[in-house]
Specification:
This protein has about 300 residues and is an alpha/beta fold. Helix content is about 45%, strand content about 15%. Strand 2, helix 3 and strand 3 form a beta-alpha-beta unit. It binds S-adenosylmethionine (SAM).
């Protein structure tokens, strides 16, 4: 059962960008506790429709109950990358706005049974979708030392990835590494105390991203979203780390340009079409006030663009 509390991040800022038509059809890819979805519904009129999905079965169940009396929302337990498929199922040609608040919810982070927590001793899992094949346990106990180091380096941007991978392999040769607590102890053994918190969060982030294939799913979601976005409709994304933010920023830039020919090409031959206009030249950040009441907001960056 879901307990706890999740405060939606950059709530007014994201909705001010997202909603352009109170009677429109909207999509949220990251339902979670339904915080943003609830506010979207409040801003829509009786004709407005919201389709929201979450890959996490617990979040889906929680919101089924939360929105049981709300006729204007349709809920899915799908990956947001298949927004185009959901649109087909719902016979929606175009959405008026698409929103995602990436990453994990407070419930997933704080709750031991969800297998994400860093503070308690939980089984090494990290799957948002429990039907996925590879858990963090499999990476830590079965992947080669080089594979582990590469995952930690690529998805955690952790410079001491090789040293950490070496220690993991040394320890697992003695006995399997079963829990987040055991992994934490092993990482701390080779990390100076002053770097431990940052290093732990980088390694856990890397495992989570790999297990859930988060970066590829985000790329697919962005591509598919623009295909089903109405002219004048908005796409609004909140990201929580540089790897995600870079993907969103570069995707928006690519979709804003109408030519990808080499710089020295005398004429344009690429036939590239501009599909988006960027609305946030710089990302929108939470205020100090928001950060002081919601720690999760501290790394949030919001980017928005409009379909042209
Ligand atoms: C930060 S929380 C969203 C919180 C929500 N906006 C609220 O205010 O309650 C992110 C949610 O997105 C979900 N999620 C992450 N990646 C996903 C994906 N590729 N497809 C669908 N859901 C995803 C997670 O399971 C998590 O519940």
């Amino acid at each position: 059962m879901i307990t706890g509390h999740h405060i939606p991040v950059l709530l007014n800022e994201s909705l001010d960008y997202l909603i352009t038509n109170r009677a429109g059809i909207y999509f949220e890819g990251t339902l979670g506790f339904g915080g943003h979805s609830l506010e979207i519904l409040k801003r829509l009129n009786e004709e407005g429709i919201l389709i929201s999905t979450d890959v996490d079965g617990n979040a889906f169940k929680y919101c089924k109950e939360k929105f049981k009396n709300e006729k204007r929302i349709k809920l899915y337990n799908f990956n947001f990358s298949v927004i185009d498929v959901i649109a087909k199922i719902e016979s929606v040609e175009f959405f008026d706005g698409v929103f995602a608040d990436l990453g994990v919810s407070s419930f997933q982070l704080d709750n031991v049974s969800s297998g994400f927590t860093y503070s308690a001793d939980a089984p090494l899992d990290f799957r948002m979708d429990k039907s996925l094949g590879v858990k963090a346990y499999d990476i830590i106990n079965d992947f080669t030392e080089t594979e582990i180091a590469n995952i930690i380096y690529e998805y955690g941007e952790e410079r001491k990835s090789r040293k950490i991978a070496r220690q993991i392999v040394k320890e697992r040769d003695l006995k399997p590494i079963n829990t987040t607590g055991e992994l934490k102890r092993i990482i701390n053994e080779v990390t100076p105390v002053r770097f431990q918190i940052k290093t732990l969060s980088r390694v856990f982030q890397a495992l989570r991203i790999y297990v859930n294939d988060e970066l590829n799913k985000l790329k697919e979601f962005l591509r598919n979203s623009v295909d089903v976005l109405n002219k004048g409709g908005r796409i609004v994304i909140i990201s929580y780390h540089s790897l995600e933010d870079r993907i969103v920023k570069e995707f928006f830039k690519y979709e804003e340009t109408d030519c990808i020919c080499p710089k020295d090409s005398p004429v344009c031959v690429c036939e590239k079409e501009q599909r988006l206009k960027i609305l946030t030249k710089k990302p929108v950040l939470p205020s100090d006030k928001e950060i002081s009441t919601n720690r999760r907001a501290r790394s949030a960056k919001l980017r928005a663009a409009e379909r042209v």
